[in-house]
C-alpha cells in the first residue's frame, strides 16, 4: 500500500435495512451523451433504465460548448486525426483505441443527423467545420455555434423518450454498485435514492456506468454541479480497476470575474482568431508553442499560470477584437449573451480569463468492448479510461468518445442478458453509527476542493502531494465513518475517495507528462511510459505497458452461451 494512502478509511457505511426493489435487464447510470447513446443501443435487445442524478439535461454534456471532432472533409483524413490525438496524448495513448474511435465517428455523426440534431452549416448547406487546439484541420462540428452539448443532449433525450424499452429516472442518485459476494465479484445493480421514493435497489443483469467526471473535486471548474466523481468512487469500491487518475485537463480559458461562476469560453473562440494577452496587452503564446493559442490545453494552461505568477493579478485576457463584434455574436451567441451580463462587448473589450479544471482523463479501465475488470460492469464516457486521451485530451474528442463507446457498451452488454438474473440479496451493514464529533459537510467539501486546486492542480510537487494525502486521511476519519441520509453527504464521501486516488496517482508518477506537471520532476521519464492501474486492496500501482494497457482480461460469463 502506498505510504500516503490508507484505503481502509474510504469505505461508505450503510444502514442495515431492507429496500424496495426494481428489476431490469440493463441499468445505465448517467444521462449524458455516453449514457443515452448506450441506452439506445441496449434497447435494441433489452429493457433499460437510465438514472439521471439531476434533471435529464443536467450533465457535462449539456454544458459542452465545444463540438464533436469528426473527419468529414476531403482535405482531412483519419490518419491526421489519429496523429493529432497521439501528439496531444504525450505518448500515452493506446493507438488501436484511438483509431477505432476516430474511424467510427462518421457513422455516429450520421445517426445524429437522422435523429434531427441541428448541426451548423454554411450558406451552401455544407457542414461548417471549426478548428480547435491541437487539431491541424477543420473537423469540429458544432450546433448553434457554442451550444453543441445542449443540442446533443436534447436530441438524445428526445430519442430515448420515444423508445418504449427505455425508462428515464431523473433526480435519482446512485449511491453504490452491488456485487454478489463482495468487491471484485459480479455487479448486479445499484442502490439508489430518489427524493420522492427514497432508497431503492435496482437489480440488473448488466450495469453500464456513464456517470461523467469529477470536476467538482476542484474549486475552479467548468463542470456541472453533479460532477462529483460518484462513478469513479463506486467502481473503485466495487473492485474495478482505475487507470490514469493523475491526469486532469484544465481548460485554459474560463471567464474570471469576482463573484461569478467559472463559465467556459470555448476553444473555438481562439480557433476563430482570438489571442491571449497578458496584463500589458502582449501576446505571450507566440514564444511558447508553434501553434500559439491553439497549442494543446496543458501547454496553454501552464503558460497562463506562468503569466499570472510573473505579474500581480489573478488572470490574463482573451482578445477577441480580431474576430469582430458582429462576427463573434453570430458565431458564439451564448457567450455573447453571457458576457453582456457583465457589460463586456467582445468586439471592444478584453475578456478576463484563467484556467479551470475541465475534464477527467483517467477513470475505469475498459477494453475495446467497454468491459471493466468486474463482470457485469461496463463503462463509457468521461468516467472511463479507454486509452483515447493518453496524458492529455485533444479538444472535442470527448463527445466523439461518448457517442462511439456508448454505442459499444450498449450493444456488447447483450452478452449478459441470457444469464440468470441476480438473486435478491439482503443489504446489511454492521457498521455502527459514528461516535466521533459531528461533521460540517459543506466546510469539508469546500476545504478539499481548495486544497485540490492549490496543490493537485496545474502544477504539483511530491512534498505538497504528501501533505494533501495526510489532509485527506484526517478528513476521512471524521467523514467516511458517518451514515448520511442525503446527497450532500454522499457526494463529500465520494469526493474524498476520488481526491485521495488522484493525489495517490499524482505522487506515484514522478515525471511531467501531458496534463500532469511535477515541479520536482519537470521532464518526461521514458521509464514511466506506461499506465498506472489502481484497484482496492492492492498495494501500489500495477504498471501496464502501452501494448497491454487498453485491454483488461476478458471476464467470462458462465451463464452466457
Description:
With 561 residues, the protein is of the alpha/beta class. It has three domains: 7-12 and 429-545, Fumarate reductase/succinate dehydrogenase flavoprotein-like, C-terminal domain (Methane Monooxygenase Hydroxylase, Chain G, domain 1), CATH 1.20.58; 23-247 and 358-416, FAD/NAD(P)-binding domain (3-Layer(bba) Sandwich); 248-357, Flavocytochrome C3, Chain A, domain 1, CATH 3.90.700.10. It is 30% helix and 17% strand. The chain has 14 helices and 19 strands. Strands 1, 2, 6, 7, 8, 9 and 16 form a seven-stranded mixed beta sheet that branches. The radius of gyration is 22 Å and the shape is globular. Residues 1-5, 427-432 and 548-561 have low confidence and may be disordered.
Summarize the structure.
The chain has 561 residues and is α/β, with parallel strands linked by helices. The chain has helices spanning 33-42, 60-63, 78-88, 95-114, 148-161, 230-237, 268-271, 297-310, 325-331, 333-340, 397-412, 441-455, 462-479, 487-508, and strands at residues 21-29, 48-51, 68-69, 129-130, 140-141, 166-169, 173-179, 187-194, 198-209, 242-243, 248-255, 275-277, 316-319, 351-360, 363-365, 377-379, 384-385, 530-534, 542-545.
User: Could you state the CATH homologous superfamily of the largest domain?
Assistant: FAD/NAD(P)-binding domain
Q: Tell me the number of strands.
A: 19
Q: Taking Cα atoms only, what radius of gyration do you get, to the nearest Å?
A: 22 Å
Distance between the termini: 39 Å
For this structure, the CATH topology of the largest domain is FAD/NAD(P)-binding domain
Rough outline: globular
Low-confidence stretches: 1-5, 427-432, 548-561
**Class of the largest domain, according to the CATH hierarchy?**
Alpha Beta
What is the overall number of helices?
Answer: 14
Give the helix proportion (percent range): 25-40%
Strand composition percent: 15-25%
- Whole-number count of domains: 3
Q: Which structural class matches the secondary elements?
A: alpha/beta
Largest sheet: 7 strands, mixed
Kindly report the average pLDDT value: 87
Q: What is the CATH architecture assignment of the largest domain?
A: 3-Layer(bba) Sandwich
Amino acid at each position: 500500500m502506498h505510504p500516503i494512502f490508507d484505503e481502509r478509511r474510504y469505505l461508505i457505511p450503510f444502514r442495515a435495512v431492507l429496500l424496495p426493489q426494481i428489476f431490469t435487464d440493463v441499468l445505465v447510470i448517467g444521462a449524458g451523451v455516453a449514457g443515452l447513446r448506450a441506452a439506445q443501443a441496449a434497447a435494441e435487445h433489452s429493457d433499460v433504465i437510465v438514472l439521471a442524478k439531476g434533471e435529464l439535461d443536467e450533465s457535462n454534456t449539456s454544458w459542452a460548448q465545444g463540438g464533436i471532432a469528426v473527419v468529414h472533409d476531403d482535405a482531412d483524413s483519419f490518419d491526421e486525426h489519429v496523429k493529432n490525438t497521439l501528439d496531444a496524448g504525450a505518448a500515452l495513448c493506446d493507438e488501436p483505441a484511438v483509431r477505432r474511435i476516430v474511424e467510427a465517428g462518421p457513422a455516429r455523426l450520421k445517426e445524429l443527423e437522422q435523429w434531427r440534431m441541428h448541426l451548423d452549416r454554411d450558406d451552401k448547406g455544407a457542414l461548417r467545420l471549426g478548428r480547435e487546439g491541437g487539431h491541424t484541420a477543420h473537423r469540429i462540428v458544432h450546433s448553434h455555434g457554442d451550444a453543441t452539448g445542449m443540442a446533443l443532449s436534447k436530441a438524445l433525450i428526445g430519442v430515448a423518450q420515444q423508445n418504449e424499452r427505455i425508462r428515464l429516472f431523473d433526480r435519482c442518485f446512485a449511491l453504490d454498485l452491488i456485487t454478489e459476494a463482495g468487491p471484485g465479484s459480479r455487479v448486479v445493480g445499484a442502490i439508489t435514492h430518489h427524493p420522492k421514493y427514497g432508497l431503492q435497489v435496482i437489480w440488473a443483469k448488466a450495469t453500464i456506468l456513464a456517470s461523467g467526471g469529477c470536476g467538482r473535486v476542484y474549486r475552479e471548474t467548468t463542470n456541472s454541479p453533479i460532477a462529483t466523481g460518484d462513478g469513479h468512487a463506486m467502481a473503485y469500491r466495487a473492485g474495478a480497476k482505475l487507470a490514469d487518475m493523475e491526469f486532469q485537463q484544465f481548460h485554459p480559458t474560463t471567464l474570471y470575474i469576482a463573484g461569478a461562476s467559472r463559465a467556459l469560453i470555448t476553444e473555438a473562440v481562439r480557433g476563430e482568431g482570438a489571442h491571449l494577452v497578458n496584463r500589458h496587452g502582449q501576446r505571450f503564446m507566440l514564444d511558447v508553442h508553434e501553434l500559439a493559442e491553439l497549442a494543446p490545453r496543458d501547454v496553454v494552461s501552464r503558460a497562463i499560470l506562468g503569466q499570472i505568477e510573473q505579474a500581480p493579478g489573478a488572470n490574463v485576457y482573451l482578445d477577441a477584437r480580431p474576430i469582430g463584434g458582429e462576427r463573434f455574436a453570430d458565431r458564439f451567441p451564448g457567450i455573447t449573451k453571457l458576457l453582456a451580463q457583465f457589460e463586456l462587448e467582445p468586439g471592444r473589450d478584453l475578456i478576463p480569463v484563467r484556467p479551470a479544471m475541465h475534464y477527467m482523463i483517467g477513470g475505469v479501465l475498459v477494453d475495446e468492448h467497454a468491459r471493466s475488470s468486474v463482470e457485469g460492469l461496463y463503462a463509457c464516457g468521461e468516467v472511463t479510461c479507454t486509452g483515447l486521451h493518453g496524458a492529455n485530451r485533444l479538444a472535442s474528442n470527448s463527445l466523439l468518445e461518448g457517442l462511439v463507446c456508448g454505442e459499444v457498451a450498449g450493444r456488447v452488454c447483450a452478452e449478459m442478458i441470457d444469464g440468470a438474473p441476480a438473486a435478491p440479496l439482503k443489504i446489511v451493514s454492521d457498521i455502527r453509527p459514528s461516535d466521533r464529533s459531528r461533521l460540517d459537510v459543506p466546510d469539508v467539501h469546500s476545504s478539499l476542493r481548495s486544497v485540490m486546486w492549490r496543490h493537485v492542480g496545474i502544477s504539483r510537487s511530491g512534498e505538497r502531494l504528501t501533505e494533501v494525502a495526510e489532509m485527506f486521511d484526517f478528513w476521512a476519519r471524521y467523514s467516511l465513518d458517518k451514515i448520511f441520509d442525503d446527497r450532500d453527504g454522499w457526494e463529500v464521501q465520494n469526493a474524498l475517495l476520488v481526491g485521495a486516488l488522484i493525489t495517490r496517482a499524482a505522487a506515484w508518477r514522478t515525471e511531467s507528462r501531458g496534463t500532469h506537471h511535477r515541479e520536482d520532476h519537470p521532464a518526461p521519464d521514458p521509464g514511466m511510459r506506461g499506465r498506472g492501474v489502481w484497484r482496492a486492496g492492492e498495494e501500489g500501482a500495477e504498471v501496464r505497458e502501452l501494448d497491454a494497457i487498453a485491454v483488461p482480461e476478458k471476464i467470462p460469463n458462465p451463464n452466457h452461451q
